[in-house]
Amino acid sequence: MDELIRARAELVLLEERPRELLQQLLDVRAAVVAQRSKIDEIIRSRPTVISRLPIELLLSIIHIDIHASYAPQKRKQELASVSRRWRDVILHSPCLWTTVHVASGISSTKTHLERSRGALLDIVIEAAGWSRSKHLALVPCLDIVESHAHRWRSLLVTSSDEHVGDDNDDEMPLTEFIGEKIKHLQFPSLKRVAILGPSTYCGIGYLDFLSVDHAPALEHLELEEFTTLHDIAKPITMLKTLRLEFCVGSGGIGYVPFPYLIPTQALTKLSLSGCMAIFLPPQNSIHFPSLKTLQMFYVTEIRPFMNVFCRDVPHSRNPL
């Protein structure tokens, strides 16, 4: 009899076991759901990987992206709308506000000058090649940036089209207009100048602002539509790199002394294109002691030009 009671009691215990195990399974499943929800909440509330980047690295990425864009101003606005952190980084980083597009208007010009906080500036001037009326529209912004001439690090002047003057409009080359406007200024920090475009007409007489008295630190110069129609009052400073694309219609103007125009002692890279006939001084008259790279594109008379500065030294391996 006692054995039967024990057997029945053990059966009851065994029958209870599945129910206990089922409850444990349900509890575990509920715990799994709760833990998963907790993890999802942590992930949602945690900043993204790019948001956890150090400000210096984030700024570097933004800087590269903006300057690689064809529309840097628009791209800057797009990136500033990504998040409040990105907006703060952009608004409070002077290096993102140093490129000043003069044609963008007074408000934009003032904003860039203010947010650049005294950093060196890259000035961009874009306008029609020969329209004086459109050039005059630049004056208000030019007046603003002229007061910061000591901060200019680079200057890019480019014509926006092939336009050759409006009806009843006094034609004036963009280069002449800019040269006359800023020739009285001093540019102690100016390192690089590029005057580019199909109708800039870069006459040397318009470049007095690049002389050694005005831009003593100038090292890199690019001139398209270059012509020696006029003389320059004083020579340009000690350049390291020079690119000249000669104006097609400037034939017969005559030779302007290269060493006087541009001292050659420090020049390490020289790039020339176009008709060289107007720029050929006597043979063996120019010496480039520091020149490392010479590039010539579509040059009509290479040999005469090489004779100009190839010193006639027997067995010389380096004619430059």
Give me the secondary-structure topology.
Elements: H1 2-45, H2 55-67, H3 72-80, H4 84-91, E1 99-101, H5 106-115, E2 121-127, H6 132-136, H7 139-146, E3 152-159, H8 174-182, E4 192-196, E5 202-203, E6 220-227, E7 241-246, H9 258-261, E8 269-273, E9 293-297, H10 302-309
Parallel strand pairs: 1-2, 2-3, 3-4, 4-6, 5-6, 6-7, 7-8, 8-9
Helix pairs in contact: 2-3, 5-7
In short:
The chain has helices at residues 2-45, 55-67, 72-80, 84-91, 106-115, 132-136, 139-146, 174-182, 258-261, 302-309, and strands at 99-101, 121-127, 152-159, 192-196, 202-203, 220-227, 241-246, 269-273, 293-297. It has 320 residues and is α/β, with parallel strands linked by helices.
What does this structure look like?
This protein is an alpha/beta fold and 320 residues long. Helices cover 37% and strands 15% of the residues. The chain has helices spanning 2-45, 55-67, 72-80, 84-91, 106-115, 132-136, 139-146, 174-182, 258-261, 302-309; strands at residues 99-101, 121-127, 152-159, 192-196, 202-203, 220-227, 241-246, 269-273, 293-297. Strands 1, 2, 3, 4, 5, 6, 7, 8 and 9 form a nine-stranded parallel sheet that branches. Helix 2 (55-67) packs antiparallel against helix 3 (72-80) and helix 5 (106-115) runs parallel beside helix 7 (139-146). The longest helix has 44 residues, at 2-45.
Beta-strand content estimate: 15-25%
Sheet/helix structural class:
alpha/beta
- Nearest-angstrom radius of gyration? 35 Å
The secondary-structure element order is: HHHHEHEHHEHEEEEHEEH
In round numbers, the mean pLDDT is 80
Helix tally equals: 10
Query: Biggest sheet: strands, sense, closure?
Result: 9 strands, parallel
According to DSSP, the number of beta strands is 9
Morphology: elongated
Which ranges are low-confidence, i.e. pLDDT below 50, for 5 or more consecutive residues? 250-255, 312-320
Cα separation of the termini: 122 Å
As a percent range, the share of helical residues equals 25-40%
